[in-house]
Write a structure and sequence with these properties.
Helices cover 47% and strands 15% of the residues. It is globular, with a radius of gyration of 20 Å. Helix 6 packs across helix 10, helix 7 crosses helix 10 and helix 10 packs antiparallel against helix 11. The strands form three sheets. It has a five-stranded antiparallel beta sheet. It has a two-stranded antiparallel ribbon with strand order 6-9. It has eleven helices and nine strands.
């Protein structure tokens, strides 16, 4: 959640009115924007004894995510070695559909990719081990219980197969010819290899990026943003760490998990590195957000350049 928070007019009295009905002690406390993603916008609320995050869904997808987290996170929290969001309450969303959530802020600092590298955190001996432990703990959560709690299952082969016609129709025309051919070939290689889809599905965070790993000094102290949690390919939990860190870090992480960074895994990660900006381009086109579309095109052009 990093984009500037876009809040509707008169948001503050609406939020305070709801808080007055569920937590009167918070209704008059200072509020300030925290950030926004595609599906939700967040505020910080400073109380006397704690700081709270209030997250408001922007649409039905975000509302479904918050409802799902409210069911899953209390059970998942007990299996991880670091704090994650623990909802204090949910209440009707005064700014859109569904319910919003409120939880005490997870301890630690959210750093962008550049700060992780500048501070040398990826070179700390404990970092790869700690991330590996978190990934393993999430993947160990019982899949059947996750289904009972309403966590959706994603079929990446079916998803990207459905996406490919839109890639041809909407993304390819925005790219130079050489880069466009490379993009289509990457989709065809990934989709055409049965081995890419042979791993049994697990619960996955599905948005495990450096800025969602909170730190204090050199220690990882929390994990946030479970809005995209899914049942799916466990390798997908490396897809954002791959471009944000480096192959050596991912290799160390895999060694801590008793696994290898082999050619197949590297091929999947390189495809997902492309598929992410493709998703941004399509989202930007669909929702009339030219800045999101153009950022995605620029990144694809860079990744696909000879």
């Amino acid at each position: 959640m990093s984009r500037t928070a876009a809040l509707p007019d008169a948001w503050e009295p609406k939020v305070r009115a709801v808080l007055a009905g569920v937590r009167p002690d918070l209704a008059r406390r200072p509020l300030r924007p925290l950030g926004a993603g595609h599906e939700s916008v967040a505020l910080l609320l400073d109380a006397e004894s704690d700081t709270y995050v209030l997250r408001f869904p922007r649409g039905e997808t975000g509302a479904a995510s918050i409802a799902r987290e409210a069911r899953l996170l209390p059970e998942l929290a007990g299996t991880l070695g670091v704090p994650i969001p623990r909802f204090a309450f949910t209440a009707p969303n005064p700014l859109g559909p569904g319910s919003f959530c409120c939880y005490p802020i997870v301890p630690g600092e959210s750093l962008d990719e550049e700060d992780w590298h500048a501070r040398g955190l990826l070179d700390e001996p404990e970092t790869a081990r700690r991330v590996a432990e978190l990934i393993e703990a999430i993947h160990a959560f019982p899949v059947e219980r996750a289904r009972e709690l309403g966590v959706p299952e994603v079929d990446l082969r079916a998803e990207h197969t459905r996406e490919l016609p839109r890639v041809h129709a909407e993304v390819v025309p925005l790219l130079p010819p050489y880069e466009a051919r490379r993009l289509v070939a990457a989709y065809e290689r990934y989709l055409g290899d049965d081995g890419n889809f042979a791993v049994p599905p697990t619960l996955i965070h599905a948005d495990l990026s450096l800025d969602h790993l909170l730190v204090d000094g050199t220690r990882i102290t929390g994990l946030i943003d479970f809005g995209d949690v899914r049942i799916g390919d466990p390798d997908y939990d490396l897809c954002y760490l791959w471009p944000e860190t480096n192959p050596a870090f991912v290799r160390r992480l895999q060694e801590h998990r008793g696994r290898r960074l082999d050619a197949r895994l590297e091929g999947k990660l390189r495809f997902w590195e492309l598929a992410d900006p493709v998703s941004d381009v399509l989202y930007g086109i669909e929702h009339g957000m030219p800045d999101v579309r153009d950022e995605g095109v620029d990144l694809l052009t860079t990744l696909l350049a000879p």
